[in-house]
Protein backbone atom coordinates (compact mmCIF):
# COMPACT_ATOMS: atom_id res chain seq x y z
CA UNK A 1 0.00 0.00 0.00
CA UNK A 2 1.46 3.36 -1.01
CA UNK A 3 1.67 6.63 0.85
CA UNK A 4 -1.20 8.07 -1.21
CA UNK A 5 -3.49 5.27 -0.08
CA UNK A 6 -5.86 7.74 1.57
CA UNK A 7 -6.36 9.92 4.61
CA UNK A 8 -6.64 8.75 8.19
CA UNK A 9 -10.40 8.22 7.95
CA UNK A 10 -10.10 6.03 4.86
CA UNK A 11 -7.22 4.07 6.34
CA UNK A 12 -9.16 3.50 9.55
CA UNK A 13 -12.08 2.12 7.53
CA UNK A 14 -9.71 -0.21 5.72
CA UNK A 15 -8.20 -1.39 9.00
CA UNK A 16 -11.53 -2.08 10.64
CA UNK A 17 -12.97 -3.70 7.53
CA UNK A 18 -10.00 -6.02 7.14
CA UNK A 19 -9.88 -6.89 10.83
CA UNK A 20 -13.61 -7.67 11.00
CA UNK A 21 -13.43 -9.76 7.84
CA UNK A 22 -10.50 -11.75 9.26
CA UNK A 23 -11.90 -12.04 12.77
CA UNK A 24 -8.84 -10.17 14.05
CA UNK A 25 -8.96 -8.01 17.16
CA UNK A 26 -6.99 -4.77 17.56
CA UNK A 27 -5.44 -2.81 20.44
CA UNK A 28 -3.68 0.56 20.41
CA UNK A 29 -0.88 2.02 22.56
CA UNK A 30 -0.15 5.71 22.09
CA UNK A 31 2.27 8.28 23.39
CA UNK A 32 2.56 11.47 21.31
CA UNK A 33 -0.71 10.82 19.45
CA UNK A 34 -2.53 10.54 22.79
CA UNK A 35 -5.54 8.57 21.58
CA UNK A 36 -5.86 9.86 18.02
CA UNK A 37 -5.20 6.47 16.41
CA UNK A 38 -7.72 4.70 18.61
CA UNK A 39 -10.27 7.46 18.04
CA UNK A 40 -9.93 7.16 14.26
CA UNK A 41 -10.57 3.43 14.47
CA UNK A 42 -13.52 3.94 16.83
CA UNK A 43 -15.04 6.48 14.42
CA UNK A 44 -15.68 3.66 11.93
CA UNK A 45 -19.14 2.09 12.20
CA UNK A 46 -18.76 -1.50 13.33
CA UNK A 47 -15.41 -0.89 15.01
CA UNK A 48 -16.61 -2.81 18.06
CA UNK A 49 -16.27 -5.95 15.96
CA UNK A 50 -12.50 -5.54 15.99
CA UNK A 51 -11.28 -2.85 18.39
CA UNK A 52 -10.56 -4.07 21.92
CA UNK A 53 -9.35 -0.75 23.29
CA UNK A 54 -6.41 1.55 23.72
CA UNK A 55 -3.88 2.80 26.25
CA UNK A 56 -2.44 6.32 26.30
CA UNK A 57 0.95 5.94 27.97
CA UNK A 58 2.20 9.49 27.62
CA UNK A 59 4.59 9.33 30.57
CA UNK A 60 7.70 7.16 30.26
CA UNK A 61 7.03 5.29 33.51
CA UNK A 62 3.60 4.24 32.25
CA UNK A 63 5.14 2.61 29.21
CA UNK A 64 6.90 0.29 31.62
CA UNK A 65 4.11 -0.09 34.18
CA UNK A 66 1.19 -0.60 31.78
CA UNK A 67 2.75 -1.92 28.59
CA UNK A 68 5.68 -3.91 29.99
CA UNK A 69 8.31 -2.00 28.02
CA UNK A 70 11.60 -3.17 29.56
CA UNK A 71 12.95 -0.72 32.14
CA UNK A 72 16.52 -1.19 30.95
CA UNK A 73 15.50 -0.32 27.39
CA UNK A 74 13.85 2.89 28.55
CA UNK A 75 16.84 3.80 30.69
CA UNK A 76 19.30 3.09 27.90
CA UNK A 77 17.46 4.53 24.89
CA UNK A 78 14.68 6.70 26.29
CA UNK A 79 11.05 6.55 25.15
CA UNK A 80 11.68 7.59 21.52
CA UNK A 81 13.18 4.48 19.97
CA UNK A 82 12.04 1.76 17.54
CA UNK A 83 12.37 -0.99 20.13
CA UNK A 84 10.15 0.99 22.50
CA UNK A 85 7.46 1.34 19.82
CA UNK A 86 7.66 -2.40 19.12
CA UNK A 87 7.44 -3.28 22.81
CA UNK A 88 4.45 -0.95 23.22
CA UNK A 89 2.62 -2.61 20.33
CA UNK A 90 3.30 -6.08 21.66
CA UNK A 91 2.55 -5.05 25.23
CA UNK A 92 -0.85 -3.55 24.47
CA UNK A 93 -2.04 -6.53 22.47
CA UNK A 94 -1.12 -8.78 25.37
CA UNK A 95 -2.61 -6.43 27.98
CA UNK A 96 -5.93 -6.09 26.17
CA UNK A 97 -6.12 -9.59 24.77
CA UNK A 98 -5.97 -8.55 21.11
CA UNK A 99 -4.50 -10.29 18.11
CA UNK A 100 -2.71 -7.21 16.76
CA UNK A 101 -1.33 -4.14 18.50
CA UNK A 102 -0.31 -0.81 16.99
CA UNK A 103 1.74 1.84 18.80
CA UNK A 104 3.20 5.33 18.47
CA UNK A 105 5.98 7.13 20.30
CA UNK A 106 7.91 10.27 19.47
CA UNK A 107 8.34 14.02 19.86
CA UNK A 108 5.40 16.21 18.82
CA UNK A 109 7.19 19.49 19.47
CA UNK A 110 7.46 22.36 19.27
CA UNK A 111 10.93 21.81 20.74
CA UNK A 112 13.19 18.79 21.14
CA UNK A 113 12.66 16.17 23.83
CA UNK A 114 14.58 13.13 25.07
CA UNK A 115 17.49 14.01 22.81
CA UNK A 116 15.42 14.07 19.61
CA UNK A 117 14.16 16.96 17.48
CA UNK A 118 10.46 17.61 17.06
CA UNK A 119 8.94 15.40 14.41
CA UNK A 120 10.99 12.33 15.28
CA UNK A 121 8.61 9.42 15.80
CA UNK A 122 8.18 5.68 15.49
CA UNK A 123 5.10 3.61 14.77
CA UNK A 124 4.96 -0.15 15.22
CA UNK A 125 2.58 -3.01 14.69
CA UNK A 126 2.83 -6.40 16.40
CA UNK A 127 0.94 -9.66 16.10
CA UNK A 128 1.39 -13.40 16.42
CA UNK A 129 3.57 -13.25 13.29
CA UNK A 130 6.02 -10.78 14.83
CA UNK A 131 6.40 -7.02 14.46
CA UNK A 132 7.13 -4.19 12.09
CA UNK A 133 8.32 -0.66 12.88
CA UNK A 134 8.70 2.54 10.87
CA UNK A 135 10.87 5.57 11.59
CA UNK A 136 9.37 8.98 10.82
CA UNK A 137 10.74 12.48 10.44
CA UNK A 138 7.68 14.72 10.20
CA UNK A 139 7.79 18.46 9.43
CA UNK A 140 5.28 20.97 10.73
CA UNK A 141 3.85 22.17 13.99
CA UNK A 142 2.66 20.03 16.88
CA UNK A 143 -0.78 19.37 15.39
CA UNK A 144 0.69 18.47 12.00
CA UNK A 145 3.18 16.05 13.55
CA UNK A 146 0.51 14.26 15.58
CA UNK A 147 -1.86 14.05 12.61
CA UNK A 148 0.86 12.69 10.31
CA UNK A 149 2.01 10.07 12.83
CA UNK A 150 -1.61 9.00 13.33
CA UNK A 151 -2.00 8.49 9.59
CA UNK A 152 1.27 6.59 9.28
CA UNK A 153 0.34 4.28 12.17
CA UNK A 154 -2.96 3.49 10.46
CA UNK A 155 -1.17 2.90 7.16
CA UNK A 156 1.27 0.54 8.86
CA UNK A 157 -1.65 -1.32 10.46
CA UNK A 158 -3.52 -1.52 7.14
CA UNK A 159 -0.39 -2.91 5.43
CA UNK A 160 0.08 -5.51 8.15
CA UNK A 161 -3.55 -6.64 7.99
CA UNK A 162 -3.30 -6.95 4.22
CA UNK A 163 0.03 -8.81 4.29
CA UNK A 164 1.20 -9.89 7.76
CA UNK A 165 4.99 -9.51 8.08
CA UNK A 166 7.22 -12.55 8.09
CA UNK A 167 9.58 -13.75 9.44
CA UNK A 168 8.91 -13.11 13.10
CA UNK A 169 10.44 -10.13 14.88
CA UNK A 170 9.75 -9.47 18.52
CA UNK A 171 10.64 -6.64 20.85
CA UNK A 172 14.35 -6.73 21.54
CA UNK A 173 15.22 -8.22 18.13
CA UNK A 174 15.48 -4.85 16.40
CA UNK A 175 19.27 -4.71 16.71
CA UNK A 176 19.66 -7.97 14.77
CA UNK A 177 17.23 -6.71 12.16
CA UNK A 178 19.03 -3.39 11.87
CA UNK A 179 22.19 -5.29 10.98
CA UNK A 180 20.68 -6.48 7.73
CA UNK A 181 17.57 -8.54 8.48
CA UNK A 182 14.39 -7.97 6.47
CA UNK A 183 12.69 -6.18 9.37
CA UNK A 184 15.30 -3.62 10.31
CA UNK A 185 13.87 -0.38 11.65
CA UNK A 186 14.06 1.85 8.62
CA UNK A 187 16.17 4.95 8.40
CA UNK A 188 14.24 8.10 9.16
CA UNK A 189 11.44 8.40 6.64
CA UNK A 190 11.40 4.75 5.50
CA UNK A 191 9.68 1.65 6.78
CA UNK A 192 11.25 -1.77 7.06
CA UNK A 193 10.26 -2.57 3.52
CA UNK A 194 11.63 0.68 2.16
CA UNK A 195 8.33 2.56 1.80
CA UNK A 196 8.77 6.31 2.12
CA UNK A 197 6.77 7.49 5.11
CA UNK A 198 7.66 11.09 5.85
CA UNK A 199 5.02 13.45 4.44
Automatic annotation (TrEMBL):
Bilayer-spanning residue ranges: none
Name recorded for this polypeptide: CinA family protein
Residue ranges of domain CinA C-terminal in the record: 9-160
InterPro entries: CinA-like_C, CinA_C
NCBIfam families: PncC_domain
Compositional bias ranges of the Basic and acidic residues kind: 187-199
Coiled-coil ranges (or none): none
Span list, region Disordered: 164-199
Species: Pseudokineococcus marinus
Amino acid sequence: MSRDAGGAEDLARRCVGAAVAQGTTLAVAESLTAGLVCARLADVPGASGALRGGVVAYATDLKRALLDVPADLLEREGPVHPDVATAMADGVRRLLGADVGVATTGVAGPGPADGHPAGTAFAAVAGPWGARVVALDVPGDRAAVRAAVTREALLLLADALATPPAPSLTAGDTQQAEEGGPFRAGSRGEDVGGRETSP
